[in-house]
Amino acid sequence: MRRAARRLLRNKLALSAVVMLLAIFATAIGANLIAPYDPTEGDITDRLLPPGRHPDQPQWRLLGTDQVGRDVLSRLIHGARVSLLVGVAGTAMSLLIGTALGLISGFRGGLIDRALLRLTDIQLAFPFIALAVTVISVIGPGLLNVILVLAATGWVLYTRVVREEVLRAREHSYVEAARAMGGTDVHIMLWHILPNVIAPVIVISSFAIAQMIITEASLSFLGLGIRPPTPTWGGMLSDARNYMQVAWWLPTFPGLALLVTLLGINIVGDWLRDTLDPTVGEAG
Asked: Which pTM does this prediction carry?
C-alpha cells in the first residue's frame, strides 16, 4: 500500500484521475443535496432554455433546460448516481461470480473444469452488448434488471483469468504445505490461492466498471435501460437526438460526463495495472 501510494503521488495524471473520480462519486452520493432542482419535474414554459442566467428564473440554469423544462444540471447530477451504481454493482456481482467459478474450475479440474470452459466459450461467442440487449428485451428494462443482466454477462473474463492463475498457483509449495497441515480445499482456495491471484482481477474490474457504464448508457439510449423519468446519461442523450440543432447543450453535457468519467476510470485502471504488475514495480 505504501508503494502504491508513492507511485500514485509521483503519477500526476493518475492522481488527477483519482481526485476527479472521487469528486464524481461524492456528487452522485450527495445528489439530493447538490442538485438545484428536482430532476424529474419541469415546466413546459421553461423548455430549451440555454445555459446561463434568465431574468424570470430565481436561480441560474447553469446547463440550461431540456425539451420539457427540466434542469439539465440536476438531471446530470442524478444521472451520475445511476451510472456509477450500475457500473460498481454490476462489476462487483460479476467479479464475485466469475472469481468463485474460476477458483472452483482451476482447483478442481476434471468434469467441472471442462463444463465451465465450454460454457464460457459459448458466452464469449456472443458480443457483450448484443447479448445484454437480447436478455433485456426478454425480461424488460429497469435498474435491477440492468444490473443483473450486466453481472450475468460479465463474469466470463474473470472466470478465465482466475482459472489460469489458479492452475499455476496450485502447483506451488505453499499450497502443498497447507494441504499437508490439514487445510481443506475451501480453506486453501480462499486463504492461500485467492490472495495470490487477486491482482489481475482488480485490474480487470477497474476497466469493467467503464464497460458497464457505457453498456448501461447504450441500453438507456436504445430505450432498454432505466425507465423514465429516472435520469440517466444514456437516456439524456437519447432524448437530445431530436434537438441537437436547436439545443446544443442537451447532447453535449451528458456526452462530456460520460467521456470524463470513462477517461478517469481507464487512467486509474492503467495505474493499477502498472502498480500491481511485479515487473513494473521492480522497474519503478
From this structure: 0.83
Range 109-140 burial, b when 16+ CB lie within 10 A, else e = eeeebeebeeebeebeeeebeebbbebbeeee
Residue type, 271: W
| DSSP H stretches of helix in 35-154 | 72-108, 110-124, 128-139, 143-154
Grid cell at residue 184: 481443506
**Long-range contacts at 217-222 (CB < 8 A, ≥ 24 apart):** 217/83, 217/258, 218/129, 219/132, 219/133, 219/136, 219/141, 219/146, 222/133
> What is the Cα–Cα distance from 47 to 70, expressed in whole angstroms?
7
Peptide bond before 228: cis, by omega within 30 degrees of 0? no
Q: What is the pLDDT of residue 130?
A: 78
Give me the CATH topology for the region 2-283.
Answer: MetI-like fold (1.10.3720)
Q: Are 213 and 86 in contact (CB under 8 A)?
A: yes
State which H helix or E strand residue 176 sits in.
helix 173-180
* Domain boundaries, given as residue ranges, for the chain: 2-283
Based on the number of CB atoms within 10 Å of its own CB, is 186 exposed (0-12), middle (13-18) or buried (19 or more)?
exposed
For 277, other C-beta atoms within 10 Å of its C-beta total 15
Range 248-276 average pLDDT:
89
Q: What is the DSSP string of 5-41?
A: HHHHHH-HHHHHHHHHHHHHHHHHHTHHHH-SS-TT-
The fraction of the chain above a pLDDT of 70, given in percent, is 95
C-alpha cell at 3: 508503494
